[in-house]
Amino acid sequence: MLVKESTTFVKTNIGEIAVFQRLADSVRTPIIFLHGVYFDHHLWDAVIESINDRTIITLDMPMHGLSKQLFKNDWTLDDCADML
After folding, report:
1. Which residues contact 35 (CB under 8 A, 6 or more apart)?
2. Which pLDDT score, from 0 to 100, does residue 2 have?
3. Quick check: is 54 in a domain?
4. Which residues contact 23 (CB under 8 A, 6 or more apart)?
5. Phi/psi at 73 (nearest 5 deg)?
């Protein structure tokens, strides 16, 4: 059921955010996994291994993992909500 995995960088109001997708051939609602401070998208690797029936989206929040290029240095949690 797994179709394709990809990594893209999306320009947002905060900066370029690394987005990782594991696409499934399914009409089920995709799941987005977010990590906390000091982690990156790999936090969810063990969890998403067992999910094969829907698309999975993970990302590296600003200044975590591969999301290092910022356009706004004084970003807030509200900016992160807008980013998503």
Report:
1. 41, 43, 44, 58, 60, 61, 64
2. 67
3. yes
4. 2, 3, 4, 5, 6, 55
5. -80, -25
Q: How far apart are CA 65 and CA 23, in angstroms?
A: 21
Q: Which of 1, 16, 83, 13 is nearest to 50 (CA)?
A: 1
Q: How many CA atoms lie within 13 A of 70 on its CB side?
A: 13
Q: Please give the average per-residue pLDDT across 48-58, as a whole number.
A: 94
**Structural domain count of the chain:** 1
Q: Specify the pTM.
A: 0.87
Question: Is 80 a domain residue?
Answer: no
Domain of residue 32: give its range: 2-74
